[in-house]
Amino acid sequence: MVAEETDSNDMLEYCLKGSLEQMKEWGHEYLRTLAGKIGHEYSKRIEDSKEIADLYTLVDYIVPQFINHNEEPEAVDLMMETEYLHKLNSFCNEHNYDRVCRYLCACSQYAADTEEMSQSYKTAFDIYKTQRQYCEALRVAQKMNNNDLIKEIMEVCQDPITKK
User: How many CA atoms lie within 13 A of 70 on its CB side?
Assistant: First the structure.
């Protein structure tokens, strides 16, 4: 028996043709491998100007699985690879937002360009703001050196002690 080629997308193709209902039962290692395949396929499709909506359907299914099992870095990595960070806020709650934001801020230091860095920081800012963590949101806005975001967070925060 010959081992599967590393560039093969059979796993992803079968998943796209099948049902998402039983993917939970296949385990976390399967989802991690699938996430890697999605990232690779996304890059190929972007280069070839092909449709990517079906990949986003998988991402929407996989990310909550990662986040619910304390695998926030894997979720953030998948969303960064597929340029889908703007949707990350919808997967965060009071239990996981801190790990997600810390990872985003750490990743932004290693971003390839300033656009990628600012997108990571902006996503962290939005999550902190949604979770009413105004001091953390202000700190991220200051790292971005964005006066508009600083002003926005100062206006949103209603607690005078926190404002001081």
Answer: 0
Q: Which residues touch 37 (CB under 8 Å, ≥6 apart)?
A: 9, 11, 12
pTM of the model: 0.90
How does pLDDT run along the chain (164 residues), one tens digit per residue?
A: 444 455 678 888 888 888 777 777 788 899 999 999 999 999 999 999 999 999 999 999 999 999 999 999 999 999 999 999 999 999 999 999 999 999 999 999 998 888 999 999 999 999 999 999 999 999 999 999 999 999 999 999 999 998 88
* Residue 25 lies inside a defined structural domain of this protein: yes
Residue 153 lies in a domain: no
For 22, counting Cβ atoms within 10 Å of its Cβ (0-12 exposed, 13-18 middle, 19+ buried), the class is exposed
Quote the domain boundaries for residue 74.
10-91
